[in-house]
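name: query_chain
kind: protein
chains: 1
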Amino acid sequence: MKPILTVLWLALAVSSFALTPGPTIIRECPSCKEPLKQFTIGSGNNFGATFWTDGKMEAPMWPDKPALVNCPHCMKTFWLEDVKQLAELDLFRRDAAKHWETAKVVVDPVETNYLAAANAPGVKLDRELYARRHAWWLANDAVRRQADGQLVWNAAQRNNLQRLAALLSDKDSCEGLQKGEIFRELGNYDACIKLLDGLPTDSNTTKMNADILKNLAIQKKSTVARWP
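structure:
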C-alpha cells in the first residue's frame, strides 16, 4: 500500500471509532428562566466500553448524556424534553453561538435528584425506571472499582431497589437479569438463584450471564461486578 493511501486508510479507521459532537441545544430553565446549554452527541460507539452487572455501560466513545438535569443557577431538577428550546447551534456556525456564549451548561443530577424524580407524584413508568436505574448506578459507583468493596444500602437506596425490582418482569430475559442482580446486591441470594433458574434463556449470552450471576450469588457476593 502506498504511503498516502496508508495515511488515508488510518485516518478513516480512526474516525470510524471517534466520538463526534452534535449540535448544542439552548434551553430555558423552567424555574429561573436562564438560558442553558445542552451538549449532544452526533455519533459514537461502545468500542472499549466496560459493562457492569447492574446494567451500567461506561463507554469513552459514548458518554452518558442524562435526560434529567439540574440548572446551574437555581439547582432545580427537570427533564430536558419538558423544557422550552430557545435555539439549536450548529457546530459550523460560530456567529450564531456568540449570542449564547455566556449560557451555562446543564449540571448532571446526583443520586437524591434521581430518587426525587422517581418518587414524584404521577411520574410516568419509563421515567421512573430511568431515574431508579440511574440512582442505583450512582450508588454503586462508590464501590464499582474496589476489589473488596462492600456497599451498605441506606433506607432510601434499599427502597429504590425494591421498587425497581417490583417494576421489572422476570418473564423478560433482560429485565429478569437485572431483577436477579437487584436481589443479589440486596443479599437475597436464594431469591436471585430461584429467579435466574426460571429465567427464559433466549440466547447463549443470556444463559451465560445468568450463570455468572448465579455463581456470584452462590458465593454470597453482593457487590456489583464487571461482565467478563
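note: The chain has three domains: 19-105, 110-167, 168-223.
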